[in-house]
Specification:
This protein is of the alpha/beta class and 442 residues long. The protein is built from 18 helices and 18 strands.
Length: 442
């Protein structure tokens, strides 16, 4: 009969792994599997202490029963495993006697089991499990190192469809690269190397550039440009996304105000980060920036993702109401990618829906489902008296499709990539038929 031990003490778990490493020969191996249940921490905040203990007991039972089942059916092993709780939403299993291949199968099946809904007090709750795996002693000569490497693999697992990742030395190199990039980003923020670039938005009724979206770009002193695909994920992981977003908001407002003073009023859209949106004084901070820049509030549009809004619709309403009352326009971004409640959406004072570019791309492939989704979004927007922006437009056929169905705005490479403020100002001047000087463009 397979035996399974459970401990609540992280120190005891470490001692067990250390003992295994010291006692076993070179050919022996064991797996340390670190599991994170993504939604558990937030869920626990809503429970009273008794309910919390009851639910954690249910989670622990699922973990231990799943471990037994996977060991018996999948890897057919008989050594004792040990389960432990390492943090609020983090658990670990030490399974001695597993090869790397068996450890991968073990973790995959354990992840699948923990991703099944938990039935508790009449509710079905899905917690979102991810697993990171490290091998002892291959990936560390002591428990702390093996667990650290398993956690490193856990971080990488959150970006994989399998929700599971084995530790490799390349993850160490990636971690060093991320730390280095984070350090460089902190210095870049102090030196004002992050700048706002502006992508045109076309009003389909007039065929003219009447708005733009401000996008972050990192311009190093040697004029090399770092791709947002590199620095945005690091900014989000490190918390630097908030000061970065604040810097882009300030520059966008100042530039838009200067264009308006030059007789070229243009609406500018700025992305809101999740960390920004969670700050208590978010609306107050935005309105202060608008006032200091001298920008008319209705020339600023804040793009807030669907997932941020639906995380807590009541709080979202409290946050955005003062902005709406001041005249700031509000756009719901990445629409169609999340799980919006139409009842909740109808109560939120948004002005604009942005159709995510994945649906626009699918039009090119003749995807009938994407076309149906876009038509549904446009119909919903008409019902709620909201404008629609289609992003990622690259072909005239896509523009014709959108225009025929009542879409008001488009943006994408068909009309131009994001450019520095001076180039965008020059585009506005030329559109207006005015002569452009270097001073005007700046």
């Amino acid at each position: 009969m397979i035996q399974l031990r459970v401990c609540r003490d992280q120190d005891r778990f470490s001692r067990e792994v250390d003992f295994f490493i010291l006692q076993q020969g070179e050919g022996a191996s064991g797996a340390v599997v670190v599991v994170e249940l993504q939604r558990l921490a937030k869920l626990m905040q809503t429970f009273d202490p008794i309910a919390s203990r009851d639910f954690i007991r249910l989670v622990a039972e699922r973990l231990t029963s799943s471990t037994r089942t996977v060991e018996r059916v999948v890897v057919r092993r008989r050594e004792q495993s040990l389960c432990a709780r390492l943090g609020v939403a983090e658990f670990a299993v030490f399974a001695p006697g597993l090869s790397q291949a068996d450890a991968a199968r073990f973790a995959q099946h354990l992840t699948a089991a923990l991703n099944q809904p938990f039935e508790w007090r009449g509710h079905k709750l899905t917690l979102g499990a991810f697993c990171g795996v490290a091998m002892a002693p291959r990936d560390g000569r002591d428990a702390d190192t093996v667990v650290r490497h398993a956690r490193m693999a856990l971080g990488a697992a959150q970006n994989t469809p399998a929700r599971m990742k084995l530790y490799t030395q390349s993850l160490d190199r990636e971690a060093v690269a991320r730390i280095t990039l984070e350090r460089e980003m902190r210095g870049a923020l102090e030196r004002n190397e992050f700048r706002a670039y502006f992508q045109p938005k076309i009003n389909l009724a007039t065929g003219k550039i009447e708005a733009c979206e401000a996008l972050a770009r990192w311009i190093r002193p040697d004029r090399t440009i770092i791709s947002p695909g590199r620095f945005i994920p690091v900014a989000e992981e490190s918390g630097l996304i908030s000061p970065l977003s604040d810097a882009i908001l300030r520059e966008a407002c100042w530039k838009a105000a200067s264009w308006a003073r030059a007789g070229l009023p243009t609406k500018v859209a700025v992305n809101v980060s999740a960390l920004q949106f969670k700050t208590e004084r978010f609306a107050e901070n935005v309105l202060r920036v608008v006032q200091h820049a001298g920008l008319a509030p209705n020339n600023l549009e804040l793009e807030i993702t669907e997932s941020m809004v639906m995380e807590d619709p009541d709080r979202a309403l409290r946050v955005i109401q003062p902005l709406r009352e001041a005249g700031v326009r509000l756009a719901i971004d990445d629409f169609g990618c999340g799980h919006s409640s139409l009842a909740a959406l109808s109560k939120l004072p948004f002005d604009v829906i942005k159709i995510d570019q994945q649906f626009v791309r699918q039009l090119e492939r003749g995807d009938g489902q994407a076309a149906a989704i876009i038509e549904m979004i446009l119909a919903l927007a008409r019902t709620l008296d909201m404008e629609v922006v289609a992003e990622g437009v690259e072909r005239k056929q896509e523009v014709e499709f959108m225009a025929a169905r009542g879409c008001e705005w488009v943006q994408g490479f068909l009309y131009g990539a994001a450019v520095p403020a001076a180039e965008f100002a020059e585009m506005l001047r030329r559109q207006a038929g005015e002569d452009v000087t270097a001073e005007d463009a700046a």
